[in-house]
Specification:
The protein is an alpha+beta fold. Helices cover about 55% and strands about 10% of the residues. The strands form three sheets. A five-stranded antiparallel sheet has the order 1-2-3-4-5. Helix 18 packs across helix 19 (about 425-435) and helix 20 (about 460-470) crosses helix 24 (about 520-530). Bound molecules: zinc ion.
């Protein structure tokens, strides 16, 4: 497998503007020479996440996550090093070259396949759109969405389409455009069981866009016929270019507004989401085909302080609202709940009363605790002790998900008021419940995803990290020590990373980071650069460390020689000769050691 050339990696790192790349995911504000925002890797309300363009790095003073622009893209997009480099290269207009001058077949293949499917989906979306707006086949679907109040402008913007009822049409059409059978079979556009049969047929089609605005999947809504047999919505399965739980419908359109408004509306489905956008409330997104996931919250967490939930008011919708409140609260976000009155969903409100009514519903959204107290009271009734206990039990999970002790207490007080029970009893029940559930771990989003080897920062590794904070120390260290002088695996690895850069003549922080494809090593390097843990005098720190390690190596060698010497017999002349040689070497070591010690 070919490897992306060092030159390309360096170029990509240089050419990518780290502030604007990070800024696509996190709102940043400039303060001095750095940019600051709320960390996308852990939950917080006051920014401790910094981007330093001079050093080309990002670093969080809260969770100590850090790295360069390549690592950031790896983390946010959940992709591997070569993919991140390729993605940034495309953005920066850098040509990707490989070490052997050849092509990286496997990586390029993955990349190409992904791009080819994205290309296919965009074409198919274009075709479906044409069928909807220009042909007789799609007319009834077009009439349906017009009747539901969507304008042509909205239909164009969201590229809505129609998948024809003839299940064999799409295969014939794409084959006539010279797409191969194998490629199409794996595209997700056809039934897995019957590869000639289209997966979507006779449906209103909602293309799902990635954050760049490329079509990567579809959701299809059933409009007529025996609807008991078919589900109302069907969605593309996970594909090389699409992960359902990690995509938010309309995020590409909503991104800018989400950033400026610092809030996001999470809708039940695509139709609702589109209705919000048409009414000018353009910070709405929809999970689409799944319940809201932690990964989806991560997409918006860097930008927003408040999540507005706009889910159905039926029993299923209420359960989902409850779950989503806990999920968002655990991620440190504030939550409001929009209630739709006078119609069954936002699309109907828009159609019946116009956009102002929907805007009013958003403005009147209830705080999550008030919403929960009233919906739980309705659900269980609070006229009986059992009802009160049930309300309290569910509400306690909400209190659990809150981060601040003040918020917790205030909410317990409010619960007491609503139930007409003293705060003391409420607190007692709350604490008893905590004690009972202590064995069950509370799920909190982790600061970093597990799986990576967590490096122990031993003394050896620290010496090498001091060389990262001031790279000229490494030239000195390298003259004195070799990889084998180190004992810990982490230090050996770090030595190799630095040695590699020295040999390639690129021993600068920026370039060391650019060439490091291991996220954990990168993280600790950036942490070292930012933490100032070696104080002002890294040179002395490194020199002391080097002489310690050198001495330890010499001692080891001397012990080894002493052991060897015991193996030889002074009676044979050959033995005597070897012993003399060993003795001379040992003497040399002794002198070195004594010289050094004093
Ligand atoms: Zn952080």
């Amino acid at each position: 497998m070919a490897i992306i050339s060092r030159e390309t990696i360096e170029q990509v790192n240089q050419a990518s503007d780290i502030v604007s790349v990070v800024g696509e995911y996190v709102s940043l504000e400039q303060r001095g020479s750095s940019w600051w925002g709320c960390c996308p890797f852990h939950s917080e309300k006051t920014p401790s996440f910094s981007v330093t363009p001079d050093k080309n790095i990002y670093y969080c003073f809260g969770c100590h996550e850090g790295g360069n622009v390549i690592k950031f893209v790896m983390e946010m997009e959940k992709i591997k090093f070569p993919e991140a480099v390729t993605l940034l290269a495309k953005k920066a207009g850098v040509e990707v070259k490989f070490e052997d001058g050849g092509s990286d077949d496997s990586q390029r293949a993955v990349d190409n396949t992904k791009e080819m499917y994205i290309d296919l989906y965009n074409r198919v979306a274009g075709t479906f759109h044409y069928l909807l707006v220009q042909t007789n086949d799609g007319k009834f679907a077009l009439d349906y969405i017009k009747k539901r109040g969507l304008t042509m402008e909205t239909i164009e913007k969201f590229k809505l389409g129609y998948a024809p009822s003839d299940r064999h049409w799409l295969k014939r059409f794409l084959k006539s455009k010279n797409f191969g059978d194998d490629f199409l079979e794996k595209s997700g556009l056809f039934s897995e069981k019957y590869p000639d049969s289209a997966f979507f047929s006779d449906r209103l089609m909602f293309p799902i866009f990635d954050r760049r605005g490329q079509v990567v999947a579809f959701s299809g809504r059933f409009l007529r016929g025996n609807s008991e047999k078919s589900p109302k919505y069907i969605n593309s399965r996970d594909l090389v270019q699409f992960k359902k739980g990690e995509t938010l419908f309309a995020f590409n359109f909503a991104k800018t507004a989400i950033r400026s408004e610092k809030k996001v509306i999470i809708c039940e489905g695509q139709m609702d989401c589109i209705a919000y956008h048409q009414c000018g409330i353009n910070y709405a997104v929809a999970p689409g085909g799944t319940a809201l996931t932690e990964s989806q919250i991560k997409i918006v967490r860097g930008y927003v302080t408040t999540v507005y939930l706009s889910l159905d008011s039926d029993a299923a919708g209420q359960t989902a609202t409850f779950k989503d409140i806990l999920l968002c609260r655990s991620a440190g976000l504030e939550v409001r709940v929009i209630s739709i009155e006078g119609g069954k969903d936002p699309a109907e409100i828009m159609c019946k009363y116009g956009s102002e009514k929907l805007a009013q519903a958003v403005a009147a959204a209830a705080a999550d605790n008030e919403y929960l107290l009233s919906s739980l009271s309705r659900k269980y009734g609070i006229s009986t002790p059992e009802g009160k206990a049930s309300v309290a039990r569910d509400f306690f999970s909400y209190v659990d998900s809150l981060r601040s002790e003040i918020e917790k207490t205030t909410n317990l007080e409010r619960l007491g008021e609503v139930l007409g029970v003293s705060l003391d009893s409420i607190k007692k029940d709350f604490e008893n419940r905590l004690r009972a559930s202590q064995s069950a771990p509370v799920r909190r989003p982790a600061a970093t995803d597990g799986g990576e080897k967590i490096l122990k920062k031993d003394a050896e590794l620290k010496i090498l990290l001091a060389c990262v904070t001031d790279t000229k120390n490494f030239s000195f260290l390298h003259d004195e020590l070799t990889e084998n002088d180190f004992e810990s695996d982490g230090a050996k690895d770090m030595f190799r990373i630095l040695e590699d850069c020295l040999e390639q003549n690129c021993l600068s922080q920026d370039k060391i980071l650019a060439c490091c494809d291991n996220p954990e090593y990168m993280r600790i390097m950036v942490e070292a650069i930012n933490s100032n843990e070696f104080g002002g005098d890294t040179e002395k720190f490194v020199k002391d460390g080097v002489s310690f390690i050198k001495r330890r190596s010499l001692e080891k060698q001397r012990n080894f020689l002493s052991d060897e010497m015991k193996k030889y017999n002074t009676n044979s002349s050959e033995g005597q000769m070897i012993l003399r040689e060993l003795f001379a070497k040992k003497l040399e070591l002794d002198m070195k050691l004594n010289g050094k010690v004093r």
